[in-house]
């Protein structure tokens, strides 16, 4: 590639990075620090930035530059990947009218605080007009991009490249065949799990200290990763030297924040360990969302809920919460934080029922996008699905349809990534245990030594950013072709042992 073409590409990528950085900072600020009356100014700024980023990417000069770069015969692997990813970004938005693209950014900036207000007021009707506009906009965007395809499938592909409705349907069917019978067995003859001590007063300063302890054990130093509070926990990777994560503390539920920090910390580790050679290019950050969720779910569950890790954490827990954990054994705590108990809140769900929460969202957002479900009917449909899949009655919108921020952000098509990521993580865990040797990883976790695990994940996934095709990265992470049976076997084995089935 000629020096001039390379310089033009890198200049384009750095400008796009700057626009994305500014918008990401605004989003972090909105969620963690901005005053309530900041909404209008932020929406105005976001629309201007979005319009500028669109104009930078979608124009005749950029199209010509991408054609010229793609025609080069001497591209090194990194530049070839940059051209591929830039072309994908161009293709995703080039057919959307610029005014509609910018207006959607403004809409999302208005929808997010509207969702927060509606959730606090337990009033879905106040948020419904924003969601109606978001659904309609996403439907139109899908039609611009691929009018011949199911619109929801187009959205799925934005988060997990190549994912189809048929693949999701098969995947969720296999999970149901494992999860529902296991739940029935647990209900009918599982050994009871003690949970009385969880409903307690958990002092906020101690919860904050525990969050810092989890970050320390994950290796997240405050020079590169900071923790704040927000209504809904999230991770924002700005570049490999600056990652923001958040949690939400609840006075009578220590476990929620503990595993939110563990989860978001997994995302942060991925972002912080991308090769610095990709800084300010379209290869920086993680790959697909299922791969990203594989890391958050792995650190939340396969590490954070493991008996080995909790054994190492137990002295810190009993030191921070001496009265709350008085008379509680490590075994009782381990069983309590892993219990299978169908509930209302996705982010607090156990490993066994978690995918049922995702199935609800998958089926509902697919129906919204294809037009078979109206937004006004969403709360009733949500409540019916929770009754069907989890056997629970939803008491109100705040504990039901308003619990997640994703739809307010326009992220329809994201939710299946959580379940896929859980399955990727379980298969990777199987393969890592085989490579390390029986019991080796557990011994390292109990000793508080996560470096060998992190090194393996860095070599399999983290360092590559988006430089390789997602299918190649899935195979690298999992140690072979993806097979959901690793995940279903993990669930069966774990819960059979936990409940003495």
Automatic annotation (TrEMBL):
Cofactor stoichiometry and binding remark: Binds 1 zinc ion per subunit.
Alphabetical list of CDD domains matching this protein: M32_Taq
EC assignment: 3.4.17.19
SUPFAM superfamilies from the UniProt entry: Metalloproteases ('zincins'), catalytic domain (SSF55486)
Active-site positions on this chain: 264 (proton donor/acceptor)
Top EC class for this record: hydrolase
Full protein name: Metal-dependent carboxypeptidase
Source organism (scientific name): Candidatus Gemmiger avicola
């Amino acid at each position: 590639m000629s020096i001039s073409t390379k310089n033009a590409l890198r200049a384009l990528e750095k400008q796009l990075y700057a626009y994305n950085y500014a918008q990401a900072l605004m989003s972090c600020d909105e969620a963690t620090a901005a005053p309530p009356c900041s909404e209008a100014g932020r929406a105005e700024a976001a629309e201007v930035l979005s319009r500028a980023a669109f104009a930078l990417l979608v124009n005749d000069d950029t199209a010509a530059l991408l054609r010229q770069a793609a025609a080069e015969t001497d591209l090194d692997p990194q530049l070839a990947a940059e051209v591929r990813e830039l072309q994908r970004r161009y293709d995703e938005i080039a057919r959307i009218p610029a005014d509609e693209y910018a207006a959607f950014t403004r809409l999302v900036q208005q929808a997010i605080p509207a969702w927060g207000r509606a959730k606090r007021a337990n009033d879905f009707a106040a948020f419904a007009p924003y969601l109606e506009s978001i659904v309609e906009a996403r439907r139109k965007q899908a039609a611009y991009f691929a009018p011949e395809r199911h619109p929801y499938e187009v959205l799925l592909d934005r988060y997990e490249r190549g994912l189809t409705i048929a693949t999701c349907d098969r995947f969720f069917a296999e999970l149901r065949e494992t999860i529902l019978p296991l739940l029935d067995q647990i209900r009918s003859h599982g050994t009871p799990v003690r949970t009385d001590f969880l409903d307690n007063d958990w002092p906020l300063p101690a919860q904050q200290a525990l969050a810092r302890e989890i970050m320390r054990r994950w290796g997240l130093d405050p020079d590169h990763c900071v923790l704040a509070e927000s209504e809904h926990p999230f991770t924002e990777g700005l570049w490999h030297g600056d990652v923001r994560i958040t949690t939400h503390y609840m006075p009578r539920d220590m476990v929620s924040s503990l595993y939110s920090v563990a989860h978001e910390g997994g995302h942060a580790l991925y972002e912080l360990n991308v090769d610095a050679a990709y800084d300010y290019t379209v290869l920086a950050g993680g790959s697909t969302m299922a791969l990203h969720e594989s890391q958050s779910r792995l650190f939340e569950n396969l590490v954070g809920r493991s008996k080995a890790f909790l054994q190492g954490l137990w002295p810190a827990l009993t030191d921070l919460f001496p009265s709350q954990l008085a008379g509680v054994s490590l075994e009782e705590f381990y069983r309590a934080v892993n219990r299978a108990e169908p509930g209302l809140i996705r982010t607090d769900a156990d490993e066994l029922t978690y995918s049922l929460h995702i199935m609800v969202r998958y089926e509902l957002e697919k129906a919204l996008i294809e037009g078979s479900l109206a937004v006004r009917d969403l709360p009733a449909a949500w409540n019916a699905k929770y009754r069907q899949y989890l056997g629970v009655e939803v008491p109100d919108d705040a504990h039901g349809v308003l619990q997640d921020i994703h739809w307010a952000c326009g992220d329809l098509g994201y939710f299946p990534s959580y379940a896929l990521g859980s399955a990727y993580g379980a298969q990777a865990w199987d393969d890592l245990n085989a490579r390390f040797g029986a019991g080796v990883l557990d011994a390292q976790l109990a000793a508080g030594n996560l470096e060998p695990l992190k090194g393996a994940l860095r070599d399999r996934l983290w360092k590559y950013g988006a430089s390789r095709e997602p299918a190649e990265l899935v195979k690298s992470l999992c140690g072979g072709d993806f097979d959901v049976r690793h995940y279903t076997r993990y669930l069966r084995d774990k819960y059979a042992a936990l409940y003495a089935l």
